[in-house]
Amino acid sequence: MSRCGNLRLWILGLVLLLCFIQSEERRLKSDHHEHNEGHSNMSASTGVPIVSFKWHHVEPPYLIALWVLVSFLGKLVIEANHHVTTYIPESALLICLGFLLGGMIWGADKVQTFKLTPTVFFFYLLPQIILDSGYAMPNKLFFTNMGGILIHAIIGTCWNAATLGLSLWGCHKGGAMGDIDIGLLQYLLFGSLLAAVDPVAVIAVFEQVHVNEVLFIMVFGESLLNDGVTVVLFNVFDAFVSLGGGAIDAKEIVKGIISFFVVAFGGSLVGFVFGLLISLLTRCTKNIQIIEPGFIFVLGYLAYLTAEMLSLSAILSVMFCGMCCQKYINSNMDERSVQTVRSALKVFANGSETIIFVFLGISAIDKSIWVWNTGFILLTLFFILVYRFIGVFVLTWMMNRFRLVPISLVDQVIMGYGGLRGAVAYGLAVLLDETRIKEKNLMISTTLIVVYFTVIFQGITMKPLVQWLKVKRAALVELSLIEKVQNKVFDHALIAIEDISGQIGHNYMRDKNFEEKWMSWFLLKSSARKKQDRLFNVFHELNLQDAMEYVTEGERRGSLDFIRNENAFVDFKKKFDEDFAEAMPDIMADMGVLSFFIMNARVLNVNKEGDPVPSVSLEMHEQNLRGLRQAEEINAHHLLEQHLYKGRKQHRHKFSRSHFSINQDENEVQEIFQRTMRSRLESFKSGKMAGIENPAFMPDVDPSSPMHIPPWLADAELEVSPVAPSQRAQVRLPWMPGHLHRLSSLRTSPRSGDSVQEGDEQLPPSGSRQTF
Amino acid sequence: MGSSSSSLNNVPDGQQLMQETGFSAAHLLRLYERFKFLDKDNRGHLRSEDFEAVPELSENPIGDRIVGAFFLPGQETVDFSSFVRVLAHFRPTEKNRTRAGAQPDPANSRNRKLKFAFRLYDQDRDGKISRIELLQVLREMLGMQVTEEQLQSIADRAIQEADLDKDDAISFDEFRKSLEKVNIDHKMSIRFLE
């Protein structure tokens, strides 16, 4: 750990340097004006200066850069001590580091020159965190739970604000806090700024505790959406406070309620518009791929600022911007640009988070703001916790009546405990007007205490609590094959039942086709639309690592088995080569690399165990068998993941509900449709054959019936289907339960007047007979 | 949707179906409307062609299988009671609400749902999913690029994983056991519109 020890010394050194610079700066500032003229005179008299110390020149950006560096170094030191971070979340440690640094600066300067100012926080540190959250948000999960999230965000936050304000006021009246000059309205204002769950704190604490995704999205979504409420509440109560108690009447209250809707929906709308803008832009940026990622950052930031300018909810704006554009820019942009965006967003977001926490710590070391009122602070803490839990329990109980999957009690406890307050509350507190609110310092102090309590104490105890309560964790367990297949079967079954019973699915987007038909057409590049085909995604996601494991596995097993299985990959390449080369040059490159790996498996020296060449020996036989099993297992899971048909819900560019047409690019649907039609033909014919003389059957089979066979299908039957030359499943689904029929020769017209030969002897026109 | 009880009289066996399946009157009415819509020739029962008239089913890999589940063994028509009884399997499981006169083992219990799913595979109703039956399902669910051998290997492994008594087939108990971690209620329920 000597390196880290050195790092600590570095940090100390840097901070001392900072202090030194500070004091220097102050000294210099005092003689600045005199020196100004003096300088020019001096230079005239002493000749050309070779080197000069131009501190003022660079001071502002230099300090900023230094602070960023210090924060990052702090994070580095913290993360190096892994055994500490398992118990104490990083955010808490960063705050403590902030205390330390603040103490040092205080010691050097006797005044806190560095603070987390609201401007810096709201304009320069917060937007990228929210943009990153929006961009990385799992949309489907979010919208599925949208109802619950909204209820918690809106009603929960209002409840928190109201109860906190009223309770504190009640206690004040009861004399528990001594003599402070705060009226009811100011209490409500205070309540409103402390009511909101903070997204930064939630991310920081929850990312180390991997709870199940529904729980996470409920808390996280709430923390993001409640900004709409917080902004409104804060502004409304601020206005009330300045108006004074007498001017509040029903009209003002109504205006307050209306402003909520305007702020919330307006903010979302602004974000949505900017998201569309980004998607549109990325459609045309093929030639400037090098700075393509820049658009996301600039436009995201503009979304934030625009909403702020229009006094709408900026957090909602930038969040919806990110959520709206993620799908489109991921498809439109080049893979490298997508990577860049993802990584850069993470850098900015994480960096901001670090800086925020460090400065939260530093801001505390400032004698001027501290007013200690035991009653006030303790009561605030108490009420916050209690009302949070009450709110969560009541609201969730109500919600569970309507949810398909109710939220368990344990999850509710975690939701309540996860109501963390953070820097947003502090920022709002500093924004208070001290002329109107005499006890601003008391409020700031209390807010800081609350933030520290939630982030540090609740952060530390969150993980043990989760473990103790046995909260359902994020599912990491590998499903068995049957489970995977069955999950898909369920998906398809649900879709089928929905179609049969005429339901519109319980999916979040009712008119999915609007999105697919219009928005995708509008916002996606044509090549990107093709790329969206599931089959391509399969290859796109094919992990090279996966292939490498397969390769090394094969090596260990021995070369022979390897050759045999090579066919699997080669088939894929052949199939896709002709059809789609132009749409996916990079995928072809991947494939090329894959085949390179496979062909050269024996030559590869990158074997992890260090065996240069797989040896062929007698005992390999045993290993072969075992390895064969393992490879089979890898193979089977792999195949399933790759080739299971996705249901309609996951399909893009699907058909409208009212009529059906074929999208030429949709291989999968083509296949399924072919197969279904073939089997129906089959069973119809066998039904005829079995002599079911139901007159109802005959007239149904004419070209105008719903069972219309498009001409291409009929043609395709006779020739070798290019799709699957080697396997037509011979066993048809028995349409009439109990009958099993082989594939018989098919005619162009489904309506055949004469008898059809039973297909036992005949070979299907495609070629060799396949048997089980 | 208007007064339920008077229109419920038009629904054949309306009251009894409500009791049996747990659908509310409004649900039942809506399903009856749908049934009548599908029954284009107004016969009072549905045949396979009526189901085929639903266009989206032909794009569903197991669409025909689901339709087949509506038909009782040996029957070629589906009357409204059977229609509703099958759909009842997909109702969400209600946990604590007890209805007066509710069935001891309602159609949407976890067990019944699993049985329904099991029967999707086990077409010959012999109580086991044989290798062949599993292969059929896999064939339908997987894309055409999957070769016959790969299918076989997948089916082999699947049976291996689930088959406890080594009879090379999956019985209902084994099926249920292999799915014990899956939230069947969540995965196999849809909220029926009123």
TrEMBL record, chain A:
The chain crosses the membrane at residues 61-78, 90-108, 149-169, 184-207, 214-237, 257-281, 310-326, 347-365, 371-397, 442-460. GO terms for molecular function: potassium:proton antiporter activity; sodium:proton antiporter activity. The keyword Cytoplasm does not apply. It is a multi-pass membrane protein. GO terms for cellular component: brush border membrane; early endosome membrane; recycling endosome membrane. Residues 743-772 are annotated as: Disordered. Residues 71-468 form the Cation/H+ exchanger transmembrane domain. It catalyses: Na(+)(in) + H(+)(out) = Na(+)(out) + H(+)(in). The keyword Repeat does not apply. It is found in: Apical cell membrane; Early endosome membrane; Recycling endosome membrane. GO terms for biological process: regulation of intracellular pH; sodium ion import across plasma membrane. Plasma membrane Na(+)/H(+) antiporter. Exchanges intracellular H(+) ions for extracellular Na(+) in 1:1 stoichiometry, playing a key role in salt and fluid absorption and pH homeostasis. Major apical Na(+)/H(+) exchanger in kidney and intestine playing an important role in renal and intestine Na(+) absorption and blood pressure regulation. Belongs to the monovalent cation:proton antiporter 1 (CPA1) transporter (TC 2.A.36) family. NCBIfam families: b_cpa1. This is Sodium/hydrogen exchanger. It comes from Fundulus heteroclitus.
TrEMBL record, chain B:
GO terms for molecular function: calcium ion binding. InterPro entries: Calcineurin_B_homologous (IPR051875), EF-hand-dom_pair (IPR011992), EF_Hand_1_Ca_BS (IPR018247), EF_hand_dom (IPR002048). It comes from the Eukaryota. The keyword Transport applies. One of its GO terms (cellular component) is nucleus. SUPFAM superfamilies: EF-hand (SSF47473). Belongs to the calcineurin regulatory subunit family. CHP subfamily. It is found in: Cell membrane; Cytoplasm; Nucleus. Keywords: Calcium, Cell membrane, Cytoplasm, Lipoprotein, Membrane, Metal-binding, Myristate, Nucleus, Phosphoprotein, Protein transport, Repeat, Transport. The lineage of its organism: Eukaryota, Metazoa, Chordata, Craniata, Vertebrata. This is Calcineurin B ous protein 2. GO terms for biological process: protein transport. CDD domains: EFh (cd00051). Pfam families: EF-hand_7. Gene3D superfamilies: EF-hand. Residues 109-144, 150-185 form the EF-hand domain.
